[in-house]
Amino acid sequence: MSTSPGRILALDLGKRRIGLALSDELGLTAQGLETLQRTNIRSDLARLAELATARNVTRIVIGNPLLMDGREGRQAEHAREFGARLEAATALPVEFWDERLTTVEAQRVLRQSGIGIEKRARAVDRLAAVILLESYLDSRRP
Q1: Domains of the chain (ranges plus CATH)?
Q2: Which helix (H) or strand (E) holds 10?
Q3: What tens digit of pLDDT does each residue of 83-117 get?
């Protein structure tokens, strides 16, 4: 394992939005970036490729929405299809990481912080991406 993995972009895929988080160059911290409103696959891929280039991303991690028993369902199939297309569009390696309960955890954190329901709705995908990326980064530490 390299001590400097470069910036990692994490995606929390949803049908309407994609939450984004970015690591620092050392792969130690995760920050929320933004939440992209999805339009169509071609535009989504182009915007993500643009962002990856602008932020010097070296790897992309996509949340794998496993079923609670650990199996992959229909949503996981969609995530893998999107990941394959994103890998082709960016020429960057794409990994999948278990995202079970990241959105639930993000909603809990936002609720406890007293953020209003409207702001929570806009922030939940981005925070879920941060939680996903933190889990991924933690797993890579010795």
Answers
A1: 7-140 (3.30.420.140)
A2: strand 7-13
A3: 999 999 999 999 999 886 666 677 677 677 777 76
Yes or no: say if 113 and 7 are a contact pair by the CB < 8 Å rule: no
The C-alpha atoms of residue 10 and residue 49 are separated, in whole angstroms, by: 13
In this prediction, what percent of the chain has a pLDDT beyond 70?
86
Pairwise CA distance, residues 87 & 124, whole Å: 25
Rg of the chain (C-alpha set): 14
pTM to 2 decimal places: 0.85
CA distance 31 to 26: 13
Which string of DSSP letters, residue by residue, matches 37-102?
A: EP--HHHHHHHHHHHHHHTTEEEEEEEE---TTS---HHHHHHHHHHHHHHHHH---EEEEE-TTH
